[in-house]
């Protein structure tokens, strides 16, 4: 991966060696311990591809409340099977996954867009700034108000 990334500064290397290096990366990923999961994503009827479709739905509308049974039904799985396979693919539950998306987006809003804590909380789908602040602190180790205060001050 390092060799491939270094090619961004060497256009000739990228043109000549890039396709083969990328092919090697694909090969190494497919034979790695995660290779089976990656290959499963290619099979439209595999559990992995069904979970990938559900992840797409969560990502596209992470601000809205999600219903795990509804997501499971949408991809043709029982709720218990969906939960089990979702956790196997992502390492987390669907609700925890959504929460991580929300918090990551809120952090960006605080750091880059000048939102207040309450604005960011409501914008990403939280109903309570207090609960948002608790979740934010758990995930990032600092209060959201502290990240909001890190915005760059205008140059004097």
Task: Tag the structure with descriptive keywords.
transcription regulation; 3 domains; Arc Repressor Mutant, subunit A; HTH_AraC; transcription; 156 residues; DNA-binding; single chain; AraC family transcriptional regulator; flat; 70% helix; mainly alpha; disordered C terminus; 10 helices
What report would you give on this structure?
This protein has 156 residues and is mostly helical. The chain has 3 domains: 1-31, no CATH class; 35-91; 96-148, Homeodomain-like (Arc Repressor Mutant, subunit A, Orthogonal Bundle), CATH 1.10.10. It has 10 helices and no strands. The chain is flat and about 55 Å long. Mean pLDDT is 85; it is low at 152-156. Pfam families: AraC_N, HTH_18. This is AraC family transcriptional regulator. Residues 52-150 form the HTH araC/xylS-type domain.
Short structural description:
With 156 residues, the chain is mainly alpha-helical.
Walk me through the topology.
Elements: H1 2-6, H2 11-30, H3 35-42, H4 47-60, H5 68-74, H6 79-90, H7 94-112, H8 117-123, H9 129-140, H10 144-148
Number of domains: 3
Going by helix content, strand content and strand pairing, the class is mainly alpha
Distance between the termini: 42 Å
Beta-strand share of residues: under 5%
Radius of gyration: 20 Å
The protein's oligomeric status is: single chain
Return the string of H and E elements. Answer: HHHHHHHHHH
According to DSSP, the number of beta strands is 0
Q: Characterize the largest beta sheet: strand count, sense, and whether it forms a barrel.
A: none
Mean pLDDT: 85
Level of helix content? 55-70%
What overall form do the CA principal axes indicate?
flat
Number of helices: 10
Low-confidence stretches: 152-156
InterPro entries: HTH_AraC (IPR018060), HTH_AraC-typ_CS (IPR018062), Tscrpt_reg_HTH_AraC_N (IPR009594)
Protein name: AraC family transcriptional regulator
Domain HTH araC/xylS-type: 52-150
Keywords: DNA-binding, Transcription, Transcription regulation
């Amino acid at each position: 991966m390092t060799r491939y990334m270094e090619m961004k500064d060497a256009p000739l290397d990228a043109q000549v060696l890039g396709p083969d290096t990328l092919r090697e990366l694909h090969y190494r990923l497919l034979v790695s311990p995660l290779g089976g999961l990656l290959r499963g994503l290619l099979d439209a009827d595999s559990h992995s591809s069904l979970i990938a479709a559900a992840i797409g739905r969560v990502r596209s509308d992470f601000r809205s409340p999600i219903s795990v049974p509804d997501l499971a039904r949408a991809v043709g799985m029982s709720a218990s099977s969906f939960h089990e396979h979702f956790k196997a693919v992502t390492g987390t539950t669907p609700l925890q996954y959504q929460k991580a998306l929300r918090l990551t987006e809120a952090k960006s809003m605080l750091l880059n867009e000048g939102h207040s804590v309450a604005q960011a909380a409501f914008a990403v789908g939280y109903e309570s700034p207090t609960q948002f602040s608790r979740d934010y602190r758990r995930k990032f180790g600092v209060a959201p108000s502290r990240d909001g205060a890190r915005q760059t001050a205008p140059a004097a």
